[in-house]
Design a protein that fits this description.
Blueprint (H helix, E strand, L loop, with lengths): L1 H19 L14 E2 L3 E4 L7 E11 L5 E8 L7 E5 L2 E3 L1 E7 L3 E11 L9 E10 L2 E10 L4 E4 L2 E5 L2 E9 L4 E4 L5 E4 L1 E4 L4 E5 L3 E4 L4 E4 L4 E5 L6 E5 L15 E5 L7 E4 L1 E4 L3 E6 L9 E11 L2 E20 L4 E11 L2 E4 L13 E4 L1 E3 L5 E3 L2 E6 L2 E4 L5 E4 L6 E6 L2 E2 L11 E2 L2 E2 L5 E3 L4 E4 L12 H4 L26
Parallel strand pairs: 2-10, 11-15, 13-16, 14-17, 15-18, 16-19, 17-20, 18-21, 19-22, 20-23, 21-24, 22-25, 23-26, 24-26, 25-27, 26-27, 27-28, 27-29, 28-30, 28-33, 29-34, 30-35, 33-36, 34-37, 36-38, 37-39
Antiparallel strand pairs: 1-3, 3-8, 4-7, 4-9, 5-6, 5-8, 9-10, 12-13, 31-32, 40-41
Length: 487
């Protein structure tokens, strides 16, 4: 009996304690937000067969009052490859979850992917969205969708006030070689450090994610060694048919100032669907290296094909086609183009800010609205500069820097220039070159009536005896990167 009395007293005391305990109210203040154990959940397993993996995400309420999460959902809904599990409930959407003050919730995220399905993008993404007191917060979800070599940014550097997330792929005094066995997927920037070299062999495929690309830091070196049979391809990582010709899917190949004897070299490459195909800049100091290009196509860039600030570049059998601003834009520097085709029939956006196909200058305006100058020199030999606009070449030059340009045996669309003006030698003006399909773009010459056939300088043609397709041009070279081949 005594024990029963003691048990009864303890029960009453416990009930009193519970009834007297202060309950926290759910606080609707819109200034109160959740915190998470990560802002990105990365499923970094490289799958070799149909696979799935699970990661944990902690959801924290750091405040002194309870919070009610109105909704937690996967943005892509039932179409998402990810699945959410919260407190044993598995769904794509969960509603009205309360997190007590100074407490947390466990959530588990699962992804299932068949990496051998070639219709699956390389990078599979979704977002987990939380709505609390009218606030929307998201956590990014990333997984690898196909077998590839994944280069994932793990640091950030600022260039010109802009953040560049990067991962070092070739460190100082290191030579890294990329080969064709598996494609490379670049998330952020693949960075070549000072005195490092990245060499990319024939047949290698590189897929850059949005806002990513390749970055050669000051005194680094990029070498692309494709072949006619197996070019190196650099493009965006979206493989669906809709994205086949969509520009602006990734950022750029950026080459900073380099050291003497370590020229950047790009041979037999196809670079497409980015923002700036090739961006070469003397950012930290005057470059002592050059960019040397041969048998390469840069096409369908939302900004520029070749963008250069005070650099040196030489290009042979080079095609730059269909860019949203200018195909070739340069401020200062030293350039030579031989048997190159620069054609702009940009049509991705009717309201684009399309400039001239070739736009060059020796002066620019600084932050104080004052001009500053870099010397400029350019030679174009046996080239085609054409497009939809009446003038596809523009030069802006001031007297405070040495500047010159020469067009020798070129076809140019322009109403401002002619052969009677300095710098123009035996050029053709405003004659349709008759490209096969310039909108595609396909810049092969497609008609025996084309005015460029046999109109190149033979002495220059002998310096580049084969065209971009490997067709001989010795003796009677056509203008441009391609020699006409009759039906």
């Amino acid at each position: 009996m005594k024990n029963r009395h003691i048990l009864l007293i303890l029960t009453i005391l416990a009930l009193v304690a519970v009834s007297c305990k202060k309950h926290n109210q759910i606080n609707p203040d819109s200034n109160l937000k959740l915190e998470f154990s990560a802002d990105t959940v990365l499923f970094d397993t490289v799958f070799t067969s149909l696979g799935s993996t699970t990661h944990e995400l902690m959801i924290y309420n750091r405040h002194s009052d309870d919070l009610q999460i109105s909704s937690i959902r996967l943005v892509q809904g039932d179409g998402s490859p990810f699945r959410l599990n919260l407190d044993g409930e598995s769904a794509t959407e969960i509603y009205d979850k309360v997190i007590p003050a100074k407490d947390s919730l466990f959530s588990f995220l699962r992804v299932t992917i068949n990496p051998n399905d070639l219709n699956t993008p390389f990078v599979v993404e979704d977002e987990l969205e939380f709505v609390t007191n009218g606030n929307t917060q998201t956590v990014k979800l990333l997984a690898w969708g196909q077998n590839a070599n994944y280069i994932v940014a793990d640091k950030v550097v600022n260039i010109g006030g802009q953040p560049y997330p990067y991962h070092i792929v070739a460190d100082s005094l290191q030579t890294t070689v990329w080969t064709k066995e598996k494609p490379y997927v670049v998330y952020g920037y693949a960075l070549i450090n000072s005195y490092g070299t990245l060499r990319i062999e024939e047949g290698t495929r590189i897929y850059c994610h949005q806002n990513g690309g390749i970055l050669s830091w000051s005194d680094g070196q990029l070498i692309i060694d494709g072949t006619a049979e197996e070019p190196v391809i650099v493009q965006g990582d979206r493989l669906e048919p809709y994205y086949q010709n969509t520009p602006g899917q990734w950022q750029q190949i950026l080459m900073m100032d380099g050291r003497a004897g370590a020229d950047h070299r790009i041979s037999h490459a196809i670079i497409r669907n980015g923002t700036i195909g090739l961006n070469c800049q003397s950012v930290l100091k005057a470059t002592e290296c050059a960019l040397r290009i041969d048998n390469t196509i840069v096409e369908n860039q939302s900004g520029y094909g070749l963008f250069s600030i005070y650099y040196a570049a030489e290009a042979k059998n080079f095609v730059i086609a269909n860019c949203g601003h200018a195909n070739f834009w340069a401020f200062g520097g030293d350039y030579r183009f031989v048997h190159s085709t620069i054609a702009n029939y940009w049509n991705a956006n009717e309201h684009n800010n399309n400039e001239h196909a070739v736009s060059v200058a020796n002066r620019a305006i600084d932050a104080n609205d004052e001009y500053f100058y870099y010397p400029f020199h350019m030679e174009m030999e046996n080239c085609i500069i054409y497009g939809k606009q009446k003038d596809e070449f523009k030069g802006v030059f001031g007297p405070d820097a040495d500047s010159s340009y020469v067009f020798d045996h070129c076809l140019i669309r322009s109403e401002q220039y002619n052969n009677d003006m300095p710098g123009f030698h035996q050029c053709l003006f405003n004659l349709d070159p008759m490209f096969a399909d310039p909108m595609k773009p396909d810049c092969h010459i497609d008609s025996l009536a084309s005015p460029v056939i046999g109109m190149g300088n033979p002495l220059i043609g002998n310096q580049v005896p084969y065209d971009l397709d490997g067709v001989s041009r010795v003796g009677a070279p056509d203008m441009g990167a391609y020699q006409f081949v009759g039906q």
